[in-house]
Each structure stands twice: as structure tokens, then as C-alpha cells.
Amino acid sequence: MTLFRNVVFIAALAGLLSGLIMTAMQAYATVPLILKAETFENAGGGHDHGAVSPEAAEAGHSHDAATPAHEHDGEGWAPADGFERFAFTALANIVTGIGFALVLVAASELTGGIANWRRGIFWGFAGFAVFTLAPGLGLPPELPAMPAADLAARQAWWIGTVAATAAGLWLIAFRSSMVLSLIGVALMIAPHIIGAPQPDSHESPVPVDLHHQFVVAVTVTNLIFWVVLGAAVGVFRARFSGAAANWRDSFA
């Protein structure tokens, strides 16, 4: 019970920290691009699409990795621009950060845990590769007013890519067999050979340069998010594990 409580507490602290940092980065890097793209969306009418990014979600308009998909319509509710939108974005990022931290802690504990911030950074890179980089190769982050393939097909491909990439990295990193490593590489490549679902047409009123800036911004912010998350898990785990050990020793 103590282990479970520590895992949840560590994940909550790491998720809170990384979520707040992600929110600050989004306010500077991605939100201005989304607002600019929304001018094209409003001018051209509504559209249906889902998000494909990170980690980390934008409230109201979510277009980062691992963000649940949504449909636009005239009757749908959205937070007002300004503080309300910022607050919902921060809340979404914190919840996302805690969820990813739980996954990171649970997976790392199977291999002995994240002992320090240096090891945490490596786990953060792995999380970035699994949840942002690999899916983003087939389904790059999208802006409002951009076309998208069928939602269910994109969700299925995203989930399959994440699972295959995670399994592949696990076989490569934690199994010494050459055969298993080759299987791991094959698993990581397979989703991209199959190919991500694509829309019938890629025509969009959004300028190519704007979309390119958005993809770069989302990728960089998610990379920093995962590095901070992994390092924070390592720091908090080392601190609380040491405190728990000292507490046990005092009663020995």
C-alpha cells in the first residue's frame, strides 16, 4: 500500500510540474499559431477532425499528440479566450502529465525504478519517442481548418503505433537477444509500413509555413515536457524513497 501511495504521489508531483511547464511553453509557442489558424477556420466554415499530438492538450482547440479528438459545430461549447482558455489548458496539461507520469513510473518500476534525474531523462526520451515522435511521423500535429482522415481509423493507428513502438523499445533495451532486438525493430517499423490513414485531399487554407512552424513547436514542447517529466520522476522518487528508507531505519 505504501508503494502504491508513493507511486501516485510521485506521479502527481511530476505531472503537476511538467503540466505547468507545458502550459507556459504552449502559451508562447503553440497557442499563437492555433489562434492564427483559427482565422482561416472561421473564414472557411467548420470542419471535423481529431488531434494527433502530447502529450499535452490545448483546451478548446486540442491539436497536440495524444489529445482526444473532437468535432467543431456552431452549437459546441468552448472556453472563452483569455484566462478561461488558459485555465482549461493548464488543467488538461496537468491531468495529462499525471497520467503519463503514472505510466512512466509503472513501466520503470518493472526494471528497478528511476533512481535519479539522469536516468529519468532517458526514460523521458523513451516516452517522447513512443507517444510523440513515432505517431507524429504518420499523423503530424494538425491546425484548425486542416483536412483529416476518418477519426476511428486515426485513433486505431495511433494506439497501434504507440503499442508497437513501446514493445519494440522494450525488446531492444531490456532483452539481450539479437533475435528479440530484430523483432523490436520490426515492430517499430511495421505501423509506418502499413501507413497512417490520410484524408482524400490535403488541400487546406492554412499556409504550409504556418503548419510547419506548428509541427516544430509541438514537437519541441513535447520533447521538453517528457524530459522534465522523466527528470522530475527521478528526483521525486529518489527523495521519497530515501525518506521512506530513513523512516524504516529509525524504527529498526
Q: Overview of this structure, please?
A:
By secondary structure, the chain is mainly alpha-helical. It has one domain. Helix content is 69%, strand content 2%. The protein is built from seven helices and two strands. The protein has a two-stranded antiparallel ribbon with strand order 1-2. Helix 3 crosses helix 7 (208-250) and helix 5 packs antiparallel against helix 6. 40% of the residues are buried. Mean pLDDT is 82; it is low at 45-63, 65-75 and 243-252.
Which features does this protein show?
252 residues, mainly alpha, two-stranded antiparallel sheet, 7 helices, 2 strands, 69% helix, disordered C terminus
Task: Tally the structural domains.
Answer: 1
Are there runs of 5+ residues with pLDDT below 50, and where? 45-63, 65-75, 243-252
Number of helices: 7
Order of helices and strands: HHEEHHHHH
Helix content: 55-70%
**Overall morphology:** flat
Q: In brief, what are we looking at here?
A:
The protein is mainly alpha-helical and 252 residues long. It contains 7 helices and 2 strands. Residues 45-63, 65-75 and 243-252 have low confidence and may be disordered.
